[in-house]
């Protein structure tokens, strides 16, 4: 499988490339960036380690060379400021993102290629990609609440002193201020979290608040997220490459799940080689369903005001 990372010279793109390289699953990684020197440097640095791990072909290229890619991972975008919501990025990022989509189209990409959006605001840009490229919505997906979910699980595990890999919990909805924690199905090693000492409603609120604000915290402390988002990007790409049919909280245009339509938002989604295989309507508490509907409405409002 050939993966092209657009914006691969930046922190998120380069960390994603490193995560993909370490796993050794995809066979070819192309780094594409408007800063060609930076792209060449990142590709060369990764190439220097290729003999140690997966042995993939890794190089910097352009849109013409990207045309035969199986997956386009779009990480390019302007960085969010510490006090700026992801949705506030939209007017600053849409023009840049639209230019990327035009370049992909002009290069003559494969009809079965998948477009995987990471740039923020990811839900809006995922819907824009689906609209602009004219692909079936199953072939366009966004990172959505994958990173939020990973943060959520890790913070829960640290609080109850358990392995993060044993915590199963989801955040759905917008990747942003209206995201929704799904406590109704959250478990650790198959046990409800309430079984663990000290786990109560107050602690739930603290953990979700920390997860929700973690992005801004990382930006404030080190300038921007990289390693965790790189790993979650790799998780989605590997689900595609290996056709895992894995249930993931990615963002995609909805066609009826939870009554949602014509909005790109994260719901439980089966992901495989063809992209979005299907959406899964897992049972939710009424307040979780209400939160998901409110999150969708916030995104619809932004979409309706979009100027492109």
From TrEMBL:
Q: Does the keyword Coiled coil apply?
A: no
State the Gene3D superfamilies in the record.
Lactate dehydrogenase/glycoside hydrolase, family 4, C-terminal (3.90.110.10), NAD(P)-binding Rossmann-like Domain (3.40.50.720)
Query: Which superkingdom is the protein from?
Result: Bacteria
Q: Keywords assigned by UniProt?
A: NAD, Oxidoreductase
Q: Which SUPFAM superfamilies match?
A: LDH C-terminal domain-like, NAD(P)-binding Rossmann-fold domains
Report the residue ranges that make up the Lactate/malate dehydrogenase N-terminal domain in this protein.
1-142
Q: Does the keyword NAD apply?
A: yes
Q: Where is the Lactate/malate dehydrogenase C-terminal domain?
A: 145-301
* Span of the signal peptide: none
What family does the Swiss-Prot or TrEMBL record give for this protein? Answer: Belongs to the LDH/MDH superfamily.
Protein name according to UniProt: Lactate/malate dehydrogenase family protein
């Amino acid at each position: 499988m050939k993966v092209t990372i657009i914006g691969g010279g930046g922190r998120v793109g380069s960390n994603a490339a490193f995560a993909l390289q370490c796993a050794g699953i995809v066979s070819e990684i192309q780094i594409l960036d408007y800063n060609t020197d930076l792209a060449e440097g990142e590709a060369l640095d990764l190439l220097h380690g290729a003999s140690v791990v997966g042995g993939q072909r890794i190089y910097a290229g352009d849109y013409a060379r990207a045309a035969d890619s199986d997956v386009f991972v779009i990480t390019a975008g302007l960085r969010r400021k510490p006090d700026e919501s992801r949705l506030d990025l939209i007017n600053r990022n849409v023009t840049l993102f639209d230019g990327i989509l035009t370049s992909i189209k002009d290069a003559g990409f494969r009809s079965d290629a998948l477009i995987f959006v990471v740039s923020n605001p990811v839900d809006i840009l995922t819907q824009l990609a689906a609209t602009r490229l004219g692909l079936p919505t199953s072939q366009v997906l966004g990172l959505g609440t994958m990173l939020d979910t990973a943060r959520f699980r890790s913070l829960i595990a640290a609080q109850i002193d358990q392995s993060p890999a044993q915590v199963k919990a989801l955040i759905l909805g917008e990747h942003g201020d209206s995201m929704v924690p799904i406590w109704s199905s959250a478990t650790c090693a198959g046990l409800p979290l309430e079984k663990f000492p000290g786990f109560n409603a107050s602690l739930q609120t603290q953990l979700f608040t920390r997860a929700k604000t973690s992005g801004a915290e990382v930006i404030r402390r080190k300038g921007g997220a990289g390693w965790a988002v790189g790993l979650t990007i790799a998780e989605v790409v590997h689900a595609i490459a290996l056709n895992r049919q894995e249930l993931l909280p990615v963002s995609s245009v909805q066609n009826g799940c939870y009554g949602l339509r014509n909005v790109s938002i994260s719901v439980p989604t089966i992901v495989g080689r063809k992209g979005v295989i299907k959406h899964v309507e897992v049972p939710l508490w009424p307040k979780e369903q209400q939160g998901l509907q409110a999150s969708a409405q916030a995104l619809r409002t932004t979409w309706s005001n979009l100027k492109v």
